[in-house]
Write the structure tokens for this entry.
Amino acid sequence: MTDDWMFHNSRKAPRRQPKPGEEVWRLRDPAGRRVQRCEPRDDSRSDAGWDVSLCDRDELLFSRRCGTEKHARYCAEVMKQDTLHHGWVEDVRDASTQ
């Protein structure tokens, strides 16, 4: 016997929308066709530490879990230096166009 009667009035929870983190850097390839950005997110309220995400447009390329904000910012800086080393450049944008 199934207990479907218990769920007949159940509502589906709204879909969770990802919350963007603080963008700490944005780089573009030398040809200017691709842009990557790095966003650390504070997940410490749920005891998950910090997450550092590297994204190309809106696609997640890489994510690293860190225990503290200091470690997350260090990882973000290492990712930036590595990407710059491979020929990418700072993507300087006018704040009024964002």
Summary: Residues 94-98 have pLDDT under 50 and may be disordered. Residues 69-85 form the longest helix (17 residues). DSSP finds one helix and five strands in the chain. The CA atoms of residues 7 and 13 lie 13 Å apart.
